[in-house]
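Protein in question kept in full:
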Amino acid sequence: MIKNVLVEEGCIACGMCESICPEVFTIGEVSEVNEGIDFASYEEQIDEAAENCPVSVIKVEK
């Protein structure tokens, strides 16, 4: 079960995470994790977004 999702410095705002899981990620100047999200409902998509991040800045705490 996912406890927390973080986007570290270095995000290039490519939009990959938002395209995979827009319920959790929003792109502004950089990717941001939306507040109040039940991460358990989107665990597969969050893991996919982290795996596909081209600069590997999405960190998933389990």
